[in-house]
Design a protein that fits this description.
With 359 residues, this protein is an alpha/beta fold. An 8-stranded parallel beta sheet has the order 10-9-8-7-6-5-12-11. The structure holds iron/sulfur cluster. The site of iron/sulfur cluster (SF4) has 13 residues, from α12. Belongs to the IspG family. Converts 2C-methyl-D-erythritol 2,4-cyclodiphosphate (ME-2,4cPP) into 1-hydroxy-2-methyl-2-(E)-butenyl 4-diphosphate. Its cofactor is [4Fe-4S] cluster. This is 4-hydroxy-3-methylbut-2-en-1-yl diphosphate synthase (flavodoxin).
Length: 359
C-alpha cells in the first residue's frame, strides 16, 4: 500500500506481518479494515444479530462483541451462524469465557494474557487459538493500566502503555504464539500518537488504532479524525475502530470516511460538494446527504460532484466524472466540467444515481 498521492508526498505504510481474522486479513498490504463493537447485550442473540447485520450493511469488516459471562459466550455459535463478518470476542480476566467462545467458533479474541491469571490458564487459551489459527488482540487502555506501571511512570504515559503491551506480547511469544494484533488506546491524541510511534518501531505486529472514549458522534468524529488521521498519515494502522457514544453504525460510516479522505479505502467513489453560497438555488444539503447515503457501498472509481449553481459549479468541479449543478427548479448534469443536459428539480437524486450506475 505504498503509493504517491498525486502532487503530494509518498504515503509509506509501516510494514507489518499479516494476521487473519476469519476471512479478513489484517496487516501486510491488505486494505485497512474497519471494526466496530456491538452495544447490544450479547446474551440477547437476536438483538446482537440484528445489530451486526446493520453493521454489515454499512460496510463494517470485523465486529467485536463483549462477553461479560458464560451465557453471552454460549451465544457465539448462534450469532455467528446468522452473520457474515468475523466476530471477535472481548474478554476481560476470565480464561473460561475465552475457551468457550473459541469452542463456539469465534474468529478472534481480545484478551490481555497478563490479566487472566496463571500461565497454565494462558497456555490453555493460546493452545486453543493455535489449534484454530485464531488471533489474539492485546488491547492496552490508558484507563485500565496495571498498577505497577502507573506507579513506575506516574501516569498512563506512552512509555507505560507500550511497556504494558510488550509485557503481554512477551507472554504470548514465550508460548510461541505470534498471531497478535496490538492496540494502545488513550483518550488523549498526543499520548496515543507517541505510544503507537514507539511500538511501531519495536514490533511488526499489525496495529489496531483508534482514540478511545472520544465522545458523542459529532465531537468524537472530529477527535477521531484528527487522531486516527494523524496516525494513518504516518503509515501507522492496519485496522481501525472509531469509538463514538452512539449507534455503532456511525463508527463504521466515520471510519470509512476517514479512510476515503486519505485514499485508503478500497471503494474509490468520491463525492465532492460545494459549501453553497447565495447563488445556490436548490436544497443542496438534502441532495448531498441522500446521494452520499445511497452510494456508500458502491465500489467504483468515480468522482461525483454536487454543486449549488450552474455559474461556477461545473468549473469548480472540473475534476469530477459526473455531477449536477443546481439551477432554478432544475439541475444541470455535467460530465468532466461540461454541461450535458437538464434534469427536473425533483429528479436530481434519481437521475444522478442512474448516471453513476451507468458509468
Ligand atoms: Fe456558490 Fe455555486 Fe460555488 Fe456552490 S458552486 S459555492 S452555489 S458559486
Amino acid at each position: 500500500a505504498n503509493f504517491k498521492i498525486e502532487g503530494g508526498k509518498m504515503y509509506k505504510r509501516r510494514q507489518s506481518r499479516e494476521v487473519s481474522v476469519g476471512n479478513v486479513k489484517i496487516g501486510g498490504n491488505n486494505p485497512i479494515s474497519i471494526q466496530s463493537m456491538t452495544n447490544t447485550d450479547t446474551r440477547d442473540a437476536k438483538a446482537t444479530i440484528a445489530q451486526i447485520k446493520r453493521l454489515e450493511s454499512v460496510g463494517c469488516d470485523i465486529v467485536r462483541v463483549a462477553i461479560p459471562d458464560m451465557t453471552a459466550a454460549k451465544n457465539i455459535a448462534k450469532i455467528k451462524s446468522q452473520v457474515n463478518i468475523p466476530i471477535i470476542a472481548d474478554i476481560h480476566f476470565d480464561y473460561r469465557l475465552a475457551l468457550e467462545v473459541i469452542d463456539q467458533g469465534v474468529d478472534g479474541v481480545r484478551i490481555n494474557p497478563g490479566n487472566i491469571g496463571s500461565i497454565d490458564r494462558v497456555k490453555m487459551v493460546v493452545e486453543k487459538c493455535k489449534e484454530k489459527n485464531l488471533k489474539i488482540r492485546i488491547g492496552v487502555n490508558g484507563g485500565s493500566l496495571e498498577k505497577e506501571l502507573l506507579e513506575k511512570y506516574g501516569s498512563a504515559t506512552p512509555e507505560a502503555l507500550v511497556e504494558s503491551a510488550l509485557n503481554h506480547v512477551k507472554i504470548l511469544e514465550d508460548l510461541d504464539f505470534r498471531n497478535i494484533v496490538i492496540s494502545l488506546k488513550s483518550s488523549d491524541i498526543y499520548k496515543t500518537l507517541d505510544a503507537y510511534e514507539l511500538i511501531s518501531k519495536k514490533v511488526d505486529y499489525p496495529l489496531h488504532i483508534g482514540i478511545t472514549e472520544s465522545g458523542s458522534v459529532k465531537k468524537g468524529t472530529i477527535k477521531s479524525s484528527i487522531g486516527v488521521g494523524a496516525l494513518l498519515l504516518k503509515g501507522i494502522g492496519d485496522t481501525i475502530r472509531i469509538s463514538l457514544t452512539g449507534d455503532p453504525c456511525e463508527e463504521v460510516i466515520v471510519g470509512k470516511e476517514i479512510l476515503r479522505s486519505l485514499d485508503l479505502l478500497n471503494d474509490k467513489i468520491k463525492v465532492v460538494s460545494c459549501p453553497t453560497c447565495g447563488r445556490c438555488n436548490i436544497d443542496l444539503i438534502s441532495v448531498v446527504n441522500e446521494v452520499e447515503e445511497k452510494i456508500n457501498n458502491i465500489e467504483k472509481d468515480i468522482t461525483v460532484a454536487i454543486m449549488g449553481c450552474a455559474v461556477n459549479g461545473p468549473g469548480e468541479a472540473r475534476e469530477a466524472d459526473i455531477g449536477i449543478a443546481g439551477g432554478k427548479g432544475e439541475g444541470l448534469l455535467f460530465k468532466k466540467g461540461k454541461i450535458v443536459r437538464k434534469i427536473n428539480g425533483d429528479r436530481l437524486v434519481e437521475e444522478l444515481l442512474e448516471e453513476i450506475d451507468k458509468y
